[in-house]
Amino acid sequence: MRILLVEDERKVASFIARALREKSYAVDVAATGEQGLDLAATEPYDAILLDIRLPGVSGIEVCRQLRQGGMETPILMLTARGLVEQRVEGLNAGADDYLTKPFALAELEARVQALIRRGFGKTAATLRCADLELDRHRRRAKRGESGVPLTSREFALLEFLMLRSPDPVTRSEIVEHVWDCHFDSETNLVEVYINRLRQKIDQDHSPKLIRTVRGLGYSLRSEE
Question: pTM of the prediction?
């Protein structure tokens, strides 16, 4: 899952981004409305967290421009406590929800999860390939009748492969979507996680679904 956070207060942005990354979200951070608009136009996100009070282009205007451009990604507005008129303006601009500062991390995480579930109406909540099934809502996987236990990162990797199936994905795309820009791309962690998934998904099953595409990356598909 990939999230765009648009927040100009550096300490607040760092605090939120770190908390979400610990939950295995990949997080991109923009410090201005202009940067947020640029990132939203070039990267696919599962949710956008948008502070209302930004230098330059305000969060409300960012939200309005995204909606006018046809973007349907769920948006959570971050607002100052007590500014009811700003919350109303943000919702009227197209935001899906708002959260007042200061907030508890548990509430932020719950709001983000709810937003992403809401966005499943645009993409399938349950992904399938052959007899492999991934329930994105309940975060469960099974192959045939057998449940497949996955860590948060393994789940994120399998979800990305299934969303792009049967097309191949490059190693750099996996790094960008499953981890984030702070990931050390020189390590072999992608290969380690691909091997872990193969052991859990393919080892005792046929056909083999996770395939290496020589010179490119990996794909998940049932046919040769």
Answer: 0.66
